[in-house]
Write a structure and sequence with these properties.
Strand content of chain C: under 5%
Largest interface: A-C, 48 and 49 residues
Number of domains of chain A: 2
Strand order of the largest sheet of chain C: 1-2
CATH topology of the largest domain in chain A: Rossmann fold
Number of helices of chain C: 15
CATH class of chain C: Mainly Alpha
Order of helices and strands of chain A: HEEEHEHEHEHHEHEHEHHEH
CATH architecture of the largest domain in chain A: 3-Layer(aba) Sandwich
Strand order of the largest sheet of chain A: 4-3-5-6
Strand content of chain A: 5-15%
Structural class of chain C: mainly alpha
Number of strands of chain A: 10
Largest sheet of chain C: 2 strands, antiparallel
CATH superfamily of the largest domain in chain A: Nitrogenase molybdenum iron protein domain
Order of helices and strands of chain C: HHHHHHEEHHHHHHHHH
Radius of gyration of chain C: 20 Å
CATH architecture of chain C: Orthogonal Bundle
Distance between the termini of chain C: 27 Å
CATH class of the largest domain in chain A: Alpha Beta
Oligomer: heterotrimer
Chains: A alpha/beta (308), B alpha/beta (279), C mainly alpha (346)
Number of helices of chain A: 11
C-alpha cells in the first residue's frame, strides 16, 4: 500500500521532469530547399545552394577536392589526409565517432557520409539536429565513378563532375585495352595476416581487381572472410596483393613471413611475387583508377613495359 | 513420563506459549525420504518462565526453536502464542511478539552498537521508517537493562564476545517481545560470561514477564537457571519437567552416552558431573 | 545515539544536488564551442522557463540540442548504475557486486548486436528504426533478468547465493555469444559495437529514449528506496532480518527486478560503462555510512556526478576526437578501486 502511493508520486514527478527537459528540434530558417534521394534510398532535404560542406569519409573528401569544391569544405575527419591540403581543414573527429558539437558549430549545408564506413547512429543524430546528410554507397569501380558524378550534381558542380567521369572512364578503357589479350592473374588480396583475412566476391575491391587484370582466388560471400592458410597455400595464387601507403614496410613484413611455416610453402612468397597498392584502393573515390593502374603495372609488367 | 500434552480444555490464560504435539520432517528434495524428523513434541511456557531445550547435537533442539519462531511450518500439531499459530502470523506482527537471539552472521559493513540495537525497533511502524524519540528511549533502556549502555558508541566488531551477546540480547529486548527465543547464546563464551548472561536473562525475564525458550547443551547452566527443561534425543522429546525431575542419572547417561553423576543440591537444583571410567 | 532522520537525509541530498548543479554548469562550459558562463546562465534560465533564448541560435542550439541532453543522459545513466550497484551489494551480500554481475549488461549487448544484425533486413518505419537497437538491448536485458531469476531460484524462491552463481554463468555465456555475433556483423557496424560495449554517451538519441530512461530511473529508485530499512537489516543477515519482521523473499525479488531494470535501461542506451556502479557506492559509504536510507540517494547523486565528470573529460581531453566515457571511468576507476581496497585493509 505504501509502495503504491509512493511509487505513484514518484511517477508523477518523473513524468513532469521528463516533459520539461524535453529538447525541441529546431527547424532551419526559410532557405530554398530541394529534395534528393541518396544512394541508401533516403530522401534528403538540402539547400539549393550548397555553400558549406562537412565530409565524414576520406573518399568523400578526395571527391570534393577532385570536383574543385575544396573552398566549400569547412570540416573533415582526422583520417582525411589526401590531398595534403585536406589535412589542414578543421577536424571534427573520427569517421566512426565524430564530434556532434564540432559539426553543428560549422553550420554545414550538407554532411557527406559513406554507408560502408560511417555509422547509422551518426546519420540519425545529425538528422535530429536538422543537419542534412547525404550518403554514397558504391559497390563497384563503375559504381564509384557514377556515384561521384551524382554527388557532383547534388553539390552543384555538375560540369566538373562530368569532366571527372569522362577522364576516369577514358583511363579505365585504356587500361582495359592494354590488358585485353592477357589472361587474368590469380591473386590473393591480403587484408590481414594474423589471422589471414581477405576480401569477398561481392566487395568493391574484388571488382577493382578485375579491372587490373586479376581475379581473387577467394570465393566467399562474406565481405571480410577469414581464410585458412592451408587453403591459401593450396590455391597457390600467383600474386599476393597488399594495400599500404608504405611499401617498404610491406617488403619487410614479407621477409618475416617468408621464414614462417605455411607461408614459406607459398610460391608467391618464395618468388616474392608481391604487389603493393597504395591505400587508395580502400577509398571509393577519385583515385581508384590510380589504384587500378598501379596494380595492373605490378602484376602485368610485360604489358606496361616495366621490369618486375 | 511427563508429556503434558494439553488440549483446548486445559488451555488456561496463564500459558503464553503452547507447543502442542508438533512434529516436523525435512528432506533436501521432494523425491527423497526425510532425513530428519521431529516427533510429536509438547510443552508449555508461562510468562516469567524459562524453559530450556536440551540434548546432544542433532537432537532436534534448533528445529523446535525455529518451529516456535514461525520460520518452519509444522508437519502436524500446532504452536500457539497467546492463542495464535506462530507460522501463520504475518512476519512484521510476529516480530513484534517474538524475538530471537542467535549466533550472529558476520556483519557485511561496520556498524555501531546503537545502530544494531535500533534495528530491534524495525517491526514496529511502517516498512520504510525513520526512528523517532520513542525508539531511541526504548533502545537506550534495552541497553541499560542488559548492562551494556557503556558500549553504546562502540563498533560491533570491536567489542568482546560476551559484550556482543549482551548487545544482541538488547536488540531482542528492543523489539518489546512477549516471547524470547535463544539459540545456544552462550556457545562461545567463557564460564564467567556465561553465568553473567544467564543471570541477567533470568532477572529480566522476571521483571519484564517474558516467556523464554532457550536451546542449550550446557546441562548445569540449564539446571541452574531454567524453570523447566525439555530433554531431546534424536528428534524425540523424552521428558519435560523441572530440572530436578528430568535430570535422572540413567536417563541422562542414555541420552548423552557418557558416565555421569547427578547430585541434588540444597537449593533444589541438580548438578551433573562427568565420571572417569575408573570412578 | 543519533539515528538518521528524514531531514538529515534531505539536507545532505540538497548539498549533493548543489554539487551536481555546479558540475553540470562546468560541464556545459566545455565543448567544441566556447561558451561564456554569463551566456550559459542566460540560456539555462531560458530553457528552465521553457522559452527559447535570445543568444545566437547556433550556441543555443548546441547547448539545448547536444550538450544538455548529453549531460542529462550522463546524469541518469550514472544515477541508475550507482543505485543498481548499491542495491546488488546488499542483495547479494557482497561488496564486490556491481550492476553487471548478474549478467544483465551482456544480455543487453547480445540484444543490441542482434538488432544491429537484423535491422537491415527489415523494412522499418523511421521512428521505430531509430530506437531499434536500444529496444533490442532492453529486450535482451529483460530476457536475461528472467533467465537469471528462474535459474537462480532455490526451492522455488529467490536465493542470493544461487542468484549470484546463475548471473555469473548466464553473463559469461552471453559474453561469449557477443564475440561470436560480432564476427557476423558487417565490418562498419563492428566498430560502432566496440564503442557501445565500452560505454558511450556521444551519440544523441531520440527524445523518447531519454524520457523512458528518466521515468524508469525514478520509478525504479522509488521501489528500491521503499525497501531501504529492510535492506539495512538484510545486511545484518537473512535469518536475522526474517526474525525482525522483514519479508526477505519479497524484498529480494523487488530489489532484484528494480535494480536489474535500472541496469538494463542504462546499458541499452549507453553501453556498459564500468566501475561507476562498483566504486561510487563504496565512496558514498565512506562519506555517509552504510545506512541505505541515506546511501541510496547519495549513490544516485554520486553516480550522476561521476559520469558527468568522466564524460566531460572524455569529450575534451583529446578533442576533437572522443574517448569513450567507459575508457575514462576505467582509467580513473581502477586506481581508485585499488586505493579503496587498501584503505579497508589498513
Amino acid at each position: 500500500m505504501v509502495y503504491g502511493r509512493a511509487a505513484l508520486a514518484f511517477l508523477l514527478v518523473a513524468v513532469t521532469a521528463g516533459l520539461t527537459v524535453q529538447a525541441r528540434g529546431q527547424t532551419t530558417s526559410a532557405t530554398a530547399l530541394r529534395e534528393v534521394t541518396d544512394e541508401t534510398g533516403r530522401v534528403v532535404r538540402l539547400p539549393t545552394q550548397i555553400g558549406r560542406i562537412v565530409s565524414l569519409a576520406p573518399s568523400s573528401t578526395e571527391t570534393v577536392y577532385a570536383l574543385g569544391l575544396q573552398d566549400k569544405l569547412v570540416g573533415d575527419t582526422e583520417y582525411c589526409d589526401y590531398p595534403p591540403d585536406a589535412a589542414k581543414k578543421h577536424k571534427v573527429g573520427g569517421a566512426i565517432n565524430p564530434n556532434m558539437e564540432e559539426i553543428a558549430a560549422l553550420r554545414p549545408d550538407v554532411v557527406l557520409v559513406v554507408k560502408s564506413l560511417n555509422r547509422l547512429e551518426t546519420v540519425r543524430a545529425l538528422e535530429q539536429l536538422g543537419i542534412p546528410v547525404y550518403s554514397t554507397d558504391p559497390h563497384s569501380v563503375i559504381g564509384v565513378i557514377e556515384s561521384m558524378k551524382r554527388l557532383s550534381e547534388v553539390l552543384g558542380a555538375g560540369d566538373a563532375g562530368a569532366k571527372l567521369e569522362r577522364t576516369l572512364r577514358e583511363r579505365l578503357a585504356a587500361i582495359q585495352t592494354k590488358l585485353k589479350d592477357g589472361t587474368p592473374k590469380r591473386v590473393f588480396f591480403v587484408v590481414w595476416t594474423e589471422p589471414l583475412q581477405s576480401i569477398g566476391k561481392k566487395t568493391f575491391i574484388a571488382d577493382l581487381l578485375t579491372y587490373s587484370g586479376a581475379t581473387s582466388v577467394v570465393e566467399s560471400q562474406q565481405d571480410w572472410p577469414k581464410f585458412s592458410l592451408e587453403e591459401a597455400v593450396r590455391l597457390q595464387p600467383e600474386y599476393l596483393v597488399f594495400a599500404s601507403s608504405h611499401s617498404d614496410n610491406v617488403k619487410n613484413d614479407v621477409e618475416t613471413l617468408a621464414v614462417k611455416p605455411g607461408w614459406s610453402a607459398m610460391e608467391a612468397i618464395k618468388r616474392r611475387k608481391i604487389a603493393v597498392v597504395s591505400d587508395a584502393i580502400n577509398r571509393p573515390g577519385p583515385r581508384i583508377v590510380d589504384a587500378v593502374e598501379e596494380l595492373a603495372r605490378q602484376i602485368h609488367p610485360e604489358v606496361f613495359g616495366e621490369k618486375n | 513420563m511427563e508429556r503434558g500434552a494439553p488440549d483446548g480444555s486445559r488451555m488456561n490464560a496463564d500459558v503464553r506459549l503452547s507447543v502442542e504435539q508438533v512434529s516436523y520432517a525435512y528432506s533436501p528434495n521432494p523425491s527423497q525420504a526425510p532425513i530428519f524428523t521431529l516427533e510429536a513434541t509438547s510443552f508449555q511456557v508461562k510468562p516469567g518462565e524459562i524453559v530450556g531445550v536440551l540434548g546432544p547435537n542433532a537432537s532436534g533442539k534448533s528445529t523446535v526453536l525455529r518451529l516456535i519462531a514461525g520460520a518452519l511450518q509444522p508437519l502436524s500439531g500446532r504452536i500457539l502464542l497467546n492463542g495464535a499459530e506462530t507460522h501463520l502470523m504475518e512476519p512484521r506482527a510476529r516480530a513484534q511478539k517474538i524475538a530471537m537471539v542467535q549466533q550472529e552472521s558476520q556483519l557485511l559493513f561496520p556498524a555501531k552498537v546503537w545502530e544494531f540495537v535500533l534495528q530491534g525497533r524495525h517491526p514496529h511502524g511502517k516498512s520504510l521508517r525513520f526512528e523517532n524519540d520513542d525508539d531511541v528511549v526504548i533502545a537506550t533502556h534495552a541497553l541499560r537493562q542488559v548492562g551494556a549502555d557503556h558500549l553504546t558508541d562502540r563498533w560491533m566488531d570491536e567489542i568482546s564476545g560476551g559484550e556482543k551477546q549482551r548487545v544482541i540480547l538488547a536488540r531482542a529486548l528492543a523489539q518489546q517481545p512477549v516471547l524470547l527465543l535463544l539459540d545456544e547464546p552462550t556457545l562461545h563464551l567463557d564460564i564467567g560470561a556465561q553465568v553473567d548472561f544467564l543471570h541477567t536473562l533470568k532477572k529480566l525475564t522476571a521483571v519484564n514477564r517474558y516467556a523464554v525458550v532457550i536451546v542449550t547443551h550446557e546441562l548445569n547452566l540449564a539446571g541452574e537457571y531454567a524453570d523447566q527443561v525439555a530433554l531431546m534425543q534424536k528428534g524425540k522429546c523424552l521428558r519435560v519437567g523441572t530440572p530436578a525431575s528430568v535430570y535422572q542419572r540413567d536417563l541422562l547417561e542414555q541420552v548423552f552416552q557418557t558416565r555421569l553423576m547427578v547430585e541434588q543440591r540444597v537449593n533444589g537444583r541438580p548438578k551433573v558431573s562427568v565420571l572417569e571410567s575408573s570412578e | 545515539m543519533q539515528p538518521l532522520t528524514l531531514s538529515k537525509v534531505a539536507v545532505r541530498c540538497g548539498i549533493l544536488a548543489l554539487i551536481l548543479f555546479v558540475v553540470v554548469v562546468v560541464a556545459l562550459k566545455f565543448g567544441a564551442v566556447p561558451v561564456s558562463l554569463y551566456g550559459l546562465a542566460k540560456d539555462l534560465i531560458g530553457v528552465l522557463i521553457g522559452r527559447s533564448s535570445n543568444i545566437s541560435s547556433e550556441y543555443g542550439m548546441i547547448i539545448r540540442e547536444i550538450r544538455l541532453p548529453r549531460i542529462a543522459l550522463g546524469i541518469f545513466v550514472g544515477a541508475s548504475l550507482s543505485v543498481a550497484g548499491t542495491s546488488f551489494q546488499a542483495l547479494l551480500r557482497n561488496p564486490l557486486a556491481d550492476p553487471y554481475v548478474l549478467g544483465v549488461s551482456y544480455g543487453a549487448a547480445v540484444g543490441s548486436v542482434l538488432a544491429l544484425i537484423i535491422e537491415p533486413h527489415l523494412a522499418l518505419q523511421p521512428e521505430i528504426a531509430a530506437v531499434f537497437t536500444p529496444l533490442g538491448g532492453f529486450i535482451g536485458a529483460t530476457l536475461t533478468i528472467a533467465a537469471v531469476y528462474l535459474l537462480g531460484r532455490y526451492h522455488g524462491d529467490i536465493d542470493s547465493k544461487t542468484l549470484l552463481l546463475s548471473g555469473v554463468i548466464v553473463g559469461s555465456f552471453f559474453s561469449a555469444m557477443i564475440l561470436l555475433l560480432i564476427t557476423m556483423l558487417p565490418s562498419s557496424s563492428t566498430r560502432g559495437v566496440v564503442y557501445w560495449l565500452m560505454g558511450d554517451l556521444s551519440t544523441p538519441m531520440p527524445p523518447i529514449l531519454g524520457w523512458v530512461l528518466r521515468t524508469g530511473f525514478f520509478a525504479g529508485f522509488a521501489l528500491i528506496y521503499l525497501t531501504a530499512s529492510d535492506l539495512n537489516l538484510l545486511l545484518a543477515g537473512e535469518k536475522e532480518a526474517m526474525h525482525l519482521g522483514v519479508d526477505v523473499k519479497k524484498v529480494q525479488l523487488v530489489v532484484y527486478l528494480a535494480a536489474s531494470a535500472l541496469t538494463g535501461l542504462a546499458v541499452s542506451v549507453s553501453g556498459s560503462i564500468g566501475y561507476v556502479g562498483l566504486i561510487v557506492p563504496h565512496v558514498m559509504r565512506m562519506i555517509f555510512g552504510t545506512d541505505y536510507r541515506m546511501l541510496l540517494p547519495a549513490s544516485a547523486f554520486g553516480g550522476a556526478i561521476a559520469v558527468v565528470i568522466a564524460d566531460t573529460m572524455a569529450r575534451t581531453v583529446a578533442a576533437p576526437s572522443e574517448l569513450g566515457v567507459g575508457a575514462v571511468t576505467a582509467i580513473a576507476g581502477a586506481p581508485l578501486f585499488i586505493y579503496l581496497l587498501r584503505r579497508r585493509l589498513a
